[in-house]
Design goal:
The protein has about 230 residues and is α/β, with parallel strands linked by helices. The protein contains 8 helices and 7 strands; from the N terminus they run αααββαβααβββααβ.
Length: about 230
Amino acid sequence: MKLARLTIGFALLLLFTGCALQQLPTLQDTYPKMYQNPPVSILILPPINNSTAVEAKEYFACSLAEAVGSKGYYTFPVEAVFDVLRDEGLYDTETYTPVILNNIQKYFGADAVLITTINRWDKAWLGTRGSLKIEAEFALLSTSTAEVLWNITANTQVSMESSSDNLLGAMIESAIKTAVEDYFPNSHKANLQTMDTALPWGKHHPEFGTDAGKLASPLKIVEIEIKK
């Protein structure tokens, strides 16, 4: 009797587990517009910086071009684009209306724009360990329809530990590492991992169209961990 109950219980567990796995969303389920009419060219807009780190905006933008380009999309030269946006008074704009997006398509020929919001860039140090927490939101908008094609929130944890065996030396090393930790290397690694994890392949990549069945985050959140 016990064996029969265990067998039935195990079968039910497999059944429910199978159902749960089938219900997990794929990239195509989550971002259907990226597969129906995938963008070829993406213009990266100046990030919106809500963090306390003033320099984060510029460094974050520079690291995004490589991260997006590595997924098979054409990206426009960031500095040149930013110069034009400054001249047009759009560099610090936080709201992009359909008219503005249409003009970006008209003058740049971009299929989509990437809007990034940096909500957190916090350094912390405790004893022999330092950390950096970055929270950023990404949204890819069509320049022709103003629809959101893709969006994700990335939470990045950078851990900085001392290599010294001496307690006092470890504390000093950790404090220095935390204080001088640079923006670009961390944003570069964070953005590369975020795009690699969550952004579908673009048309310029040999694996374009092969990731439709890849599992996506149900909450559109990715957790990135970097150890240094």
